[in-house]
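Quick one: structure tokens for this chain, please?
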Amino acid sequence: MDSQELEHLPGLTAQEVQINLKKFGYNDLPADKKRSVFFLWINVLKEPMFLLLLASSGIYWFIGDILEASVLFGSIFFIIGLTFYQENKTEKTLLALKELSSPKATVIRDHTIVKIPSREVAVGDIIVLKEGDRVPADAQFISGTNITVDESLLTGESVPVNKEKDSSFYSGTLVVRGQGIAKVTNIGTESKIGKIGKSIQKIKIQKTTLEKNTGVLVKYLSLTAMLTCLIVVLINGIFYSNWVDGILSGITLSMSLIPEEIPVVLTIFLALGAWKMTRSNALTRKMSVIENLGSVTALCVDKTGTITKNQMDLSQISVRGSRTSLGDIQNLPEQFHELLEYAYLAGSRNPFDPMEKAIKTNIYKFLANSNFIHESWMLIKEYPISSEVAAISHVWKVTENQHYVVATKGAPEVIAKMCNMPELETKKLHEEISVMAEEGLRVLAVAKASIPAGSIPNEHKALKLTYIGLIGFIDPVRENIGEAVIECSKAGVRVIMITGDYAGTAKNVARVIGLTNCDEVLTGQDVDRLTMDSLQHKLKTVNVFARITPEQKLHIVNALKSNGEVVAMTGDGINDAPAIKSADVGISMGLRGTDVAREASSLVLLDDNFISIVNGIRSGRSIYANIKKAVAFVFSIHVPIAGLAILPLLTGLPKIFYPVHILFLELIIDPLCTIGFQAEKEDKNIMNIPPRNILAKVISKKEMIRALLKGFGILICSFSMYIYLVPHFGEQFARTFTFVSMIFGDFGLVFFGRIKHFLENKAFLIIFSLAISVLLLAISIPQVRDLFNFGYISPLQFIIAAIAGLLSTLYVYLM
């Protein structure tokens, strides 16, 4: 097929192009209408975390602490940034779908071959396709030579599909061999890739349980703090006519009750956790997904390109019943030389097809310095694959030879017929093919012929061939997959393989990587026949799915979620995107993955290594465990803060805390300590325990009671000392001594709970050193001491107060 032949095809005229573009639109996927800034502001104003930060900021503005008010108010813009990102996620996915199409398309218009932007391809256009081209739109095949297309991005099958007259091409697929022309039938959202884009667009992203629970918690505590503040102000104003002191006391009490550290904990832990995971080749696109990673119970894996490498390796070759694995040898036995020679002659010199690349790689590996490559031979004729003959034959002119050499490879049953193979030999051939197929191999047969010059038959099936042997290809499994599957099993995570490939291949791969119950396979036809209830029942035991369409993948993921599973879905193709987005944790491949899959996912594996998924699950569990520790610590320390703020009001003693003290405790000591929890090392047994229930609250009732009891220990000790010290040493001395004791009680909660590995956490050591230094400055410098209403205490008294605080939490180690 040359340019002159193509120019005889009329194609669309300029007028027809304009008519069709007006009627069907451009070859685009329209993005959602962008949300207005006002709409985003309204959404943010509804968030409990925003209300908490805004309330806290208002309090600090009210008491005149402009710096802290500005910091909290600035964090509001961080929330707005996250909201913008989430709202634009669907738009980015659709944009990635558009960019996936080839930037340029070759078409025939007005009898002329022209290149145009792919978005300008119109319905009815005649497109020209050759090796390496992305198909710009859905089209119907008109004519071509030996054209095959890689449709793995849509179907999940790694084996290229042969195209014949009237067969269909799909937008975004890749031509791997041959050339041809086709007529465009569907563009934009009406193409197959466009319909997948629309299915992604309809899926809504839900908040994680952590976000929901935290939102309810902080909203409740904020309302409680505001109500308490109002009551204190009214009591002081109405009964004691001291409105100023009432307002000050109310603000102090309100500040002591508002756990503003909780949103800080979430932001810092998730952000730093995401950063750490990036260093382990897992890019977090949505920080809150870290919570779900630790709860994953079902990991749905696409075979092609995720478990396997999405490439074809020549694995085994067979001649007259003698087989050898090419990966196990350094030198190829002589009996296999002819087989490899003719397999190469039946392909392209400069192949694009993965199987032909594998053949070329091996012939140059084993026979490079021999006479089996035949660079000087000239290709006279090519018989392409067709519906009648599922084989390809090349006729070669041999220098100084009156005969032509024919090399053929194709479907074994077709080659057997073309070789007029006897029934007994055919039976043995099929037995050998079955054995190779059970090992997950894609099997082709190779044959040869010699014909006199000038007597080349017109029909492919007229060739009289001599059988040589079989060649078996395999899409190899990635390294370390087996170990990752075992670790997932120990962690209580089921690995479920969902593929568009054949059941036999899927079963073999499942067996290789160690999936349980791998002999039971459900196909796409089985899934279609099952009701949702039946599918949910089957999903309790079945771990292998084959011949699955993109819609069925999404159906399976949703059925698993209906079973109460927390689902992670991995993949790299366009076909995976809807299921990736619907899953609780969507994981895409960074190197081999499409933009569509990456944009739809919440986690991207930068190295495409399956083991990184396991590392991600481990990190998710560890991060969430540290969040629980930090939240429990926040509740523990708020007991003495709130208690020491309210008890003097009830007992008639002088106030212990003023707003500046609460500010010091909450914005210096507590947040710094929570950062220390983030640096905690993961538990060695964290992958040997069942996944966390995703519906469980951040902190259970039992954990809450335990945390409150720890805080009550500090409260009882500190207030008892205050009661004794006020009449004997005065208000300012008592306040200073109690404040120092309480801060060291704060330290004790951390220290005694992890005494065995406390020194391993450098963050804690740095934080405590910094906090103690600031505290010493506040006590030692007269101007700062006056600001805090402190009295002078000697170094010995400071040490006694510190020891008292530590002893008040010693029992924590025994709990």
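The chain has a mean pLDDT of 79.
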